[in-house]
Amino acid sequence: MSPARPCRGLRAAVAASVGLSEGPAGSARKGRLLRPPGPARAAPGARLLRLPGNGAVRAASPERAGWTEALRAAVGELRSGAVVAVPTDTLYGLACSASCSAALDAVYRLKGRSEAKPLAVCLGRVVDVYRYCHVNVPEGLLNDLLPGPVTLVMERSAELNKDLNPFTPLVGIRIPDHAFMQDLAQMFGGPLALTSANLSSQPSSLNVEEFQDLWPQLSLVIDGGPIGDGKSPKCRLGSTVVDLSVPGKFGIIRAGCALENTTDVLQRKYGLLPHRDPAE
Prior knowledge:
With 280 residues, the protein is α/β, with parallel strands linked by helices.
């Protein structure tokens, strides 16, 4: 990644080198695998906040105070350039400000993630997609799939930080079907970078205990309780990732947990043609 711009409250991560090789979406960049930090400290460094209910449904009075506390705490940490663990409609994720280059570097480093692997962008409303992407599909299609367990890949706009996935002109957009995440994105007021809460190559997380080794590197963990059925392998597949960057066509980049419903909407309702084998 290019040298990080300073972000209040977070020490800038060491800038990564740039090479030349084929990366995602036919890009030209060689991704350096950033090693995660050493063994976790004995005491977690993250503050843990438990959401009222499960977080997927907005809390009502008298539990609203706990909901608001968690929102304000998360927004404060994100605006300071920190990395926060959050529940979504599919998996637990790591979120940071997509506009903070140092925070983006920190996410790659703590996960030990290759820099050639893109981060998704989490937004709070469908209307926000038009600010950060060049949309060439009907608005109804967006409303049919979002919010939901999908990531829609489109051409990015100049509104996004150039240090976010600099190796590709595309960006994956997420609006989780999860009340807390929608409230968080709207209260934050800008794009959030989002990825799964686990070390790279390790299983994804359906509860906060499963990524406890990462807590020392996080500022805040929002506990929304267990997500889905932990005994079902399908629950750990994450969102279905769909390439919508080619007009009139779609490509399945990752099958994910909502493949059947997503392809049904794209093909039957909107007549889009597949341009990539789902098995790829």
